Amino acid sequence: MRQRASFRTRLALAGAVWIAIGLIASWLVLSRLFEGHAVAEFVDELDHHATELANLVVLDADGALRLSVPLSDHRFQQPSSGYYWQVERPGGGSLRSPSMGNSALALNLPLDGTAQERTVTLEGPTGPVMVLERTVVGGPSGVPLRLAVGSDVTLRDAFLATFKHTLAVSLAFIGLGLVATAAVMIWYGLLPLGRMRRELAAVRRGDAARLSEDLPEEVAPLAASVNALLQSNEEMIRRARLEAGNLAHALKTPLAILQFEGERLSAAGQDGRTVVEQCDRIRRQIDYQLAHARAVASRSSGVAATRLAPALDALISGIERLYRGRGIAFELADLPDDVVVACATEDLDEVMGNLVDNAAKWARSRVCITVSALRDKTIRLCVEDDGPGMPPEARERAFEAGTRIDESTPGTGLGLAIVRDVVSLYGGKVWISTSAWGGVAANVELPVQPFAS
């Protein structure tokens, strides 16, 4: 499957994914670390309260437990506050914080005269309670005690949830900032490639001959290689055209001599028609192959683009002068200046020149050239005349090399053959239909230059 996503999209998506993975991993690790730290802090706080509680417990005159002064944390005085303490002595005596109301914690550390301590979760007045349970020997009361200080688990969980939410929001903002920063870096880093793309578009349109090599060192060799390729193609095309022209010139001189000899034989009463006809046939083939070679060279060069409006204006202006004496009106529809067809200028002139010239030869008073855009990134050029028209059975045969529908009209019979050959090289098509005035309508479809925007 072809990968059509741009480098910018790929890099942005990859950066966003890795940033998200990193931030999620950071959230998990930091949450776990903070949870351990928070639990340790809660235990330390309970240890502090338990030590304070052990120092404040005394026995009154009748042997009952009481506190010399209340604990410093006022939450132990508020009912169902989530902070509780409880003290027990051997024989069943106990003392509980006002916050516990009528509830009690189920303590079970043995009072065997040894100091012990543990952290457990017990059921409290408002739900599970994290309890620090401790046995005290030789405290201010003078008797062994079992005491416990606890805090509601929901208080710890709410504290942790608040931290995790705050952490998640903070990391999300950091992630957005990192993604935005990455996007700016990607945009800035790919600017040279965008510049190369615009310059390539200019080369394709014919507005520039080479790419600029004033680029970062990573892409400068690529631009240099493309320039070298363009230069090599231009040199090959130049040599091919030169060789084709030299060959044509070399053949035309002997052909002229042979044709002269054929005409001289005919003038002397001998049959020289065959020689004259074959020379004329060879000449037409040379003209046809030269036009074909030129079109192939232009198409192979990769720089095949022509702005349609100025090209047609120049063409009509030239043909109008040729047929000025016949009073033919040439009409050209208004065209936007930015319409660019994927066809070399000389090949477009060859195609439209043949079609407009043919129309002018047969027209009575007018020739009309219209252009319409099609949905599949092509345009249609239509050359219509008000002449006698062409029979339907002759329309396809008119595109065969050397075919002349009417021998009384000057021509070589190669014009339409060259038109079809050139148009097909550029992926287009050409056909003949009936014009709005009953004459011939020559239709050509050519692709729009893809880098015209």
From TrEMBL:
Record field: transmembrane: 12-30, 167-190
EC assignment: 2.7.13.3
Any Pfam family: HATPase_c
PROSITE patterns: HAMP (PS50885), HIS_KIN (PS50109)
Location of this chain's protein in the cell: Membrane
Keyword list, A-Z: ATP-binding, Kinase, Membrane, Nucleotide-binding, Phosphoprotein, Transferase, Transmembrane, Transmembrane helix, Two-component regulatory system
GO molecular-function term, one example from the UniProt record: ATP binding
Reactions mediated catalytically: ATP + protein L-histidine = ADP + protein N-phospho-L-histidine
Domain named HAMP: residues: 187-238
Keyword field contains Nucleotide-binding: yes
Database matches in SUPFAM superfamilies: ATPase domain of HSP90 chaperone/DNA topoisomerase II/histidine kinase, Homodimeric domain of signal transducing histidine kinase
InterPro entries: HAMP_dom (IPR003660), HATPase_C_sf (IPR036890), HATPase_dom (IPR003594), His_kinase_dom (IPR005467), HisK_dim/P_sf (IPR036097), Sig_transdc_His_kin-like_C (IPR004358), TCS_sensor_his_kinase (IPR050428)
Histidine kinase domain sequence ranges: 246-450
The keyword ATP-binding is annotated on this UniProt entry: yes
Main location: membrane
PANTHER family, per the entry: SENSOR HISTIDINE KINASE TRCS (PTHR45436:SF5), SENSOR HISTIDINE KINASE YKOH (PTHR45436)
Protein name (database record): histidine kinase
